[in-house]
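Side project, low priority. Logging it here so it doesn't get lost.
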Amino acid sequence: MARIRHYETMFIVKPTLTEEETKAQIDLVKSNIEKNGGTIVATDDMGTRDLAYEIEKNKRGHYYLIFFTAPTESILELERNYRINEAILRFIFIKYESKTEVAQWTAMSAESAKKTTAKATPATEAAAE
């Protein structure tokens, strides 16, 4: 049986995509994580930001962060999916191993979940009115 580890992934989507296409790319990455045995704990949509340097003639990109747990062998497949997806400019995986790192991961994912909940709350209240 494969060992389940704690991971964080951040990726940058091309800014030339429409909002619906960007959302579709994010959903594709999430479904790939779940398809490969992962469980998404928290997400953080950081929005469109300036890049530190041009990547493929793009000066901006849409940043997205996902905290998840997954078997170790699933990361290779996720990296392969990132590499063949032309809409993703850059990506990174960070593995948390020691007890201290896992505690930090837990705190960061909880903070990210709070942000997501806080963002969703005003929209829910406005929809109720």
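Brief comment: The beta strands are 4-13, 39-55, 58-71, 88-96.
Revisit when time allows.
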